[in-house]
Design a protein that fits this description.
The chain has about 425 residues and is mainly beta. The protein has helices at about 10-20, 30-35, 140-145; strands spanning about 105-110, 110-115, 120-125, 130-135, 160, 165-170, 175-180, 195-200, 220-225, 225-230, 250-255, 260-265, 295, 300-305, 330-335, 340-345, 360-365, 370-375, 385. The strands form five sheets. It has a four-stranded antiparallel sheet with strand order 1-2-3-4, with no helix packed on it. It has a four-stranded antiparallel sheet with strand order 5-6-7-8, with no helix packed on it. A hairpin with a 4-residue loop joins strand 2 (about 110-115) and strand 3. Helix content is about 5%, strand content about 25%.
Length: about 425
């Protein structure tokens, strides 16, 4: 779908070098949970924040995607005097140099973990010096990699720890494998899947052929002992077929790689929402995946999915109806995959207006009433805000009648 930023691979890691140069040694580190608490926890004081390394254990800074850090050493008074501390060139990772790198590195215990190259290599660097500690090169196989829809470095790895000495990194390869790696060595974790790898093509819904596609672009999300994978497809502007693989979201056991649950973003017959796909279109239409990053609330045990449009992005003549759960914000129980609530932001999306970013968790006070909220930012610059427990809109959302299509074969929603 749409791309949110264009930067060179080197630029992303040069910035990391600048930050590393302005922070002290890793022995003074504090955890990401202390630096950027989950919604509902008290915000820590930032007094003396510069006296400690602040870890970045999640793509969005924390599970709530708040992207907050208390680091205060770089500000308007000294930004102009920064110098490059180190540079890591990613041009040799993969069969050809990557034009852009959208990865957000993780920083844990003085080590920077990132992804590089169109084959999505996972790299560990010393955050202070830029020294390469290890690299893991995925092997999707020539044919499978050739068919991968998202041949990029991706948006970063995910991290899990039990805070008892056991931890691992997770990455999803372009060819749609889920890998669990030892953060110390980069080696695949024994006992997870088959030799540290889970084949995500197993269990996909739809016919796998030369016209179908499924892959991944954003990090897996780890909440508790569940690692959750959202899929991405080939851009759907001019698809080669009206049919494609479904963009189901799946949860796996972080220890074994066992499939725990599957949420059907396009419902099957007999499931709620199937009636919103007229003329049996849910049987063959695909996509409706989650290509943007996901968000979670560890206290509630909920995960929030920003789903995309179904096939095709700008034509819905093959899928009349409102098409749940596409272009929606969907809340699931992270342990079971059961739907808690949903809100469809675009009915029958034919404008490529699917959700482009992770929902953001926040604590609001509205008319004196505290609300655990979740906000979804959209491509239209709207911010839809909900009670993240119940799914009720925090402020009224008006369903307005809209002009109907005059395109032969197309269908449009009344609102």
């Amino acid at each position: 779908m749409s791309r949110l930023s264009i930067v060179s691979p080197a630029a992303a890691l040069i910035a990391a070098g600048l930050l590393a140069a302005c922070t002290p040694a890793p022995e003074d580190s504090v955890s990401a949970d202390a630096a950027s608490p989950a919604p509902g926890q008290q915000q820590p004081s930032t007094d003396g924040a510069g006296a400690a390394n602040v870890e970045w254990r999640f793509y969005g800074g924390n599970l709530g995607s708040q992207r907050y850090s208390p680091l205060d050493q770089i500000d308007a008074s000294n930004a102009a005097s920064l110098k490059i501390a180190w540079r890591f060139n990613t041009g040799n990772y993969g069969p050809r140099p990557e034009a852009r790198n959208e990865t957000t590195p993780l920083v844990i215990d003085g080590v920077l973990y990132t992804q590089a190259g169109i084959t999505r290599n996972v790299v560990a660097l010393d955050a202070k010096s830029g020294e390469l500690l290890w690299v893991w090169r995925p092997n999707d196989g020539e044919q499978r990699f050739a068919r991968a829809p998202r041949k990029t470095s991706g948006r970063g790895p995910a991290y899990w720890t039990d805070d008892a000495g056991n931890d691992r990194l997770f990455t999803v390869t372009p060819g749609f494998h889920l890998a669990a790696l030892d953060p110390d060595t980069g080696r695949p974790v024994p006992g997870f899947g088959e030799n540290g790898i889970v084949d995500l093509m197993i269990g996909v819904r739809g016919e796998v052929n030369d016209k179908s596609s499924i892959g991944n672009s954003s990090p897996a999300l780890v909440i508790g002992d569940v690692v959750i994978v959202g899929p991405a497809h080939e851009v759907g502007m001019r698809p080669p077929s009206k049919a494609n693989l479904k963009g189901d979201v799946r949860g796996y056991d972080v220890h074994t790689g066992k499939l725990l649950w599957t949420f059907h973003t396009i419902p099957e017959a007999g499931e709620p929402g199937y009636e919103t796909w007229l003329n049996g279109s849910a049987e063959y239409v695909g996509n409706a995946g989650v290509w943007a990053a996901m968000t979670a609330d560890a206290e509630l045990g909920y995960v929030y999915l920003p789903t995309e449009a179904p096939l095709a992005d700008t034509w819905g003549g093959e899928r009349h109806g409102n098409n749940l759960y596409s272009s929606s914000l969907v809340c699931l129980d992270a342990r079971t995959g059961e739907r808690v609530w949903h809100y469809q932001l675009i009915h029958h999306d034919i404008w490529d207006w699917d959700n482009p970013t992770a929902p953001i968790l926040m604590e609001l006070v509205v008319d004196g009433r505290p609300i655990k909220a979740v906000a979804q930012i959209t491509k239209q610059a709207f911010v839809y805000t909900f009670d993240r427990v119940t799914g009720e809109p925090v402020w009224p959302i008006e369903e307005r009648p809209v002009p109907q299509t005059d395109v032969p074969g197309e269908w449009t929603s009344p609102t």
